[in-house]
Specification:
MG3; MG2; elongated; about 60% strand; single chain; Macroglobulin domain-containing protein; endopeptidase inhibitor activity; A2M/Complement_sys; mainly beta; five-stranded mixed β-sheet; about 270 residues; 3 domains; Immunoglobulin-like
Length: about 270
């Protein structure tokens, strides 16, 4: 008479707080029954998670197995119990325990402001997207979001922030006052017990008084007598700048030996 048996296969790497696909193969087991899968702590045999699946005579069945969340990677026990046939007279029973390693894999949270620098009185807009360990957007509300100024004071806070359906993005905004503390501000979000942070700058932006552009050739021949270089300085309103320019020019030649020559050039009263 053929012997009864089973094979339960799992992914090699188990991530906490993720549902994986376990595959059960039964051999010479025709009766209906059920199996129970338990995750247990090794040190105390305390059951952290268990689930039961009905087996209706299938020789092969895919079982969605939830791996419990862990704060740090650790070894756990996976126990399988099965009973087939009647309660009083089971035709086949399963009871086995194996050690499995569960990896702690935190969620990934992205905080994206609409820009990096804000002027006093402007509107701060930002989005938050959380990705689950299996790289899918989380559709759960974000537990806590807050904005801190340069002193660490919470100037705004949002609780249980809803996300856009099917996308998982939450959008928030905050109106700056005309005289906010200037410096580095912090956008923080707490997701799945972890706090993520993004920095932004709040300051008065002063336009530069003038800009300097340099136009020069990309390549200069070794026998060139002169090198055409153009320096152009203009104020922000477009007028040319008059003054003295000290420039250091360093042509570099390539061949068997690399040489470099530095020249000091002074230009006065030029536009």
């Amino acid at each position: 008479m053929p012997l009864n048996g089973y094979i339960l296969t799992l992914p090699k790497v188990l991530w906490g707080n993720v549902t994986v696909s376990a595959h059960l193969n039964l051999f010479n087991v025709a009766d209906e029954g059920s199996i129970t899968l338990k995750f247990m702590r090794i040190d105390s045999n305390v059951t952290i998670w268990e689930q039961t699946e009905k087996i209706k005579g299938e020789a092969s069945k895919s079982v969605p197995l939830y791996v419990p969340w862990v704060s740090e990677s650790q070894m756990m026990q996976l126990k399988i119990e099965g009973r087939f046939g009647t309660l009083s007279l089971p035709s086949y029973t399963i009871e086995n325990t194996q050690n499995v390693y569960v990896e702690a894999r935190p969620w990934i949270t992205f905080i994206q402001p609409d820009k990096e620098l804000y002027l006093p009185g402007q509107l701060i807009r930002f989005r938050i997207l959380s990705v689950t360990p299996d790289l899918r957007p989380s559709l759960e509300p974000i537990a806590d979001v807050w904005l801190e100024d340069t002193t660490g004071t919470r100037v705004a806070q949002w609780k249980n922030v809803p996300v856009i359906a099917y996308v998982g993005i939450a959008q928030m905004e905050f109106q700056l006052s005309e005289e906010p503390p200037q410096g580095t501000w912090f956008i923080k979000a707490k997701v799945d017990g972890q706090t993520e942070m993004k920095t932004i700058q709040v300051s008065e932006y002063v336009l530069p008084k003038f800009s300097l552009t340099i136009v020069r050739p990309d390549v200069v021949l070794a026998n060139a007598v002169s090198i055409p270089i153009e320096f152009c300085a203009k104020y922000t309103h477009g007028q040319p700048v008059k003054g003295t320019l000290n420039a250091e020019i360093s042509p570099r030649t390539y061949g068997y030996n690399i040489t470099e020559k530095r020249l000091q050039v002074k230009i006065s009263d030029q536009q």
